[in-house]
Amino acid sequence: EFVVAWAKETEIGKDIVITENDIKNLIMSKASVHAACVTLMKEAGVTRHEISTIYFAGAFGNYLDKKNATSIGLIPEIAIDQIKNIGNGAVAGANIALVDRRTRKKLDEIAYKIAYIELNAENSFMDEYTSSTFLPHTDLTLFPGVQKMLESCRIRRD
User: Distances in Å between the alpha carbon of 14 and those of 34, 86, 89?
Assistant: First the structure.
């Protein structure tokens, strides 16, 4: 266990710690998200270069550090300004749909086009999940920004 903050430094009077299990759960969760992204991109026939925006909603999105999300391989590496936190997207979307009939009709058209993909039935999902259990990934070429950062951190002995 690693102590992030000692009890005397916290408002709750208890140590704040990160355990090995916390790290394991983080890696498994991030691998699931990344594998889902890659599987859906393959299914749609797009690459990370064709993604214009990644949206994060809810409390998770509000507190997510975009750079760190990319650095650990949670999402495909795209420019930070292409990652948007939109807050409570469900409530905002429901409000828009209730207020504007044209938007509601457009949303109905979009909903009709949605395809259901059962990720656990996709062989490529499990392969990608396994590769994504590394930080950021077993294939660093998918994360050129992270690769560059890691290379700049290496100690050079000349």
Answer: 34, 33, 35
